[in-house]
From TrEMBL:
CDD domains: SPFH_HflC (cd03405). Residues 20-185 form the Band domain. It comes from the Bacteria. Belongs to the band 7/mec-2 family. HflC subfamily. It is a single-pass membrane protein. Residues 303-316 have a biased composition (Low complexity). The lineage of its organism: Bacteria, Pseudomonadati, Pseudomonadota, Betaproteobacteria, Burkholderiales. This is Protein HflC.
Length: 316
């Protein structure tokens, strides 16, 4: 047993030394092989590789994926109109030259992000300071992002970094001018609304006036037409009355007298103070429908008492 112990220790030492000579490069990483503190090899293909054991050689890995820098606080930038905007942006970037990137930043990703954020801030100021709020917000927003991308990409290339994309995520006014802008917008909308209301009121009055005019015209035309129809009806009625009178004058007189009686005695409370010998009652006491002729000053009728009544009883 004592003889096997040194052998096992030796095997463990050999395995540890062998494992320190082997390393794996993943698909998402770069591998920098250092020899005595100097970069000897850059590996960007995944696989199994060999190296000398430390301290002769060691390996540092860098992320080769596309990374994101998001601004924690919106940048306050002034436009050509001297108005402050709060702009929130983000940047997509990746390591293009691992050797140059490591020499520049020592493999410190945080230092690289801070350096790129400073360059983005400068490019953002340069693009926004020469434009108006309308240009930055809508009219030339794509152009602003393209300018920032080109500016930052050019300045990041000597650092071993590739800028993939730059986007302006949110743009809004600074709090001290937001209220005044909103009030101005509200006043403008109120002015437009009042203008539309006045136009609508004028159009309404115009429509009502036209409707009233057409109503008067229609009523006048209808009245004229009604009068013409009534005139034609009266003419036809007169013609019918005349024809009827010509055929039987006595019956026509009798029929008209009945209509007069019906109209005069339409209510039980009606009271007439009339001479009973007048022509109005010529058919009233005749059972045969023949007119009774007046009998003189006494106003008697044929077959009736000679003494006239002072006044007839209430007609029923």
């Amino acid at each position: 047993m004592q003889r096997l112990l040194p052998i096992l220790v030796g095997l463990l030492i050999i395995l540890a030394a062998a494992s320190s000579c082997v390393f794996i490069v993943r698909e998402r990483d770069y591998a920098l092989v250092f020899s005595l503190g100097e970069v000897r090899k850059v590996i960007n293909e995944p696989g199994l590789y060999f190296k000398a054991p430390p301290p002769f050689q060691n390996v540092v890995t860098l992320d080769k994926r596309v990374l994101t820098i998001e601004s924690t606080d919106a940048e306050r930038i002034q436009t050509s109109e001297k108005k402050n905007l709060l702009i929130d942006s983000y940047v997509k970037w990746r390591i293009a030259d691992p050797r140059l990137y490591y020499v520049t930043f020592g493999g410190n990703e945080r230092a690289a992000q801070e350096r790129l954020q400073a360059q983005i801030r400068d490019a953002l100021n340069a693009a926004v300071n020469v434009r108006t709020v309308k240009d930055v917000v809508s009219a030339e927003r794509e152009k602003v992002m393209a300018e920032i991308l080109a500016n930052v990409a050019k300045r990041a290339e000597p650092l071993g970094v590739q800028i993939v994309d730059v986007r302006l995520r949110r743009i809004e006014f600074a709090p001290e001018i937001s209220e005044s802008v909103y009030r101005r917008m509200e006043a403008e909308r109120t002015r437009v609304a009042n203008e539309l209301r006045s136009i609508g009121a004028a159009e309404g009055e115009k429509i009502r006036a036209e409707a009233d005019r057409r109503r008067e015209v229609i009523l006048a035309e209808a009245y004229a037409k009604a009068q013409a129809i009534m005139g034609e009806g009266d003419a036809q009625a007169s013609s019918v009355y005349a024809a009827a009178y010509g055929k039987d004058p006595v019956f026509y007189t009798f029929y008209k007298s009945l209509e007069a009686y019906r109209t005069a005695f339409s209510k039980p409370s009606d009271l007439l103070v009339v001479d009973p010998s007048s022509e109005f009652f010529q058919f009233f006491k005749s059972s045969m429908g023949n007119p009774a002729a007046p009998t003189g000053a006494q106003g008697g009728l044929p077959g009736s008492p000679s003494a006239p009544a002072a006044a007839p009883a209430p007609a029923r």
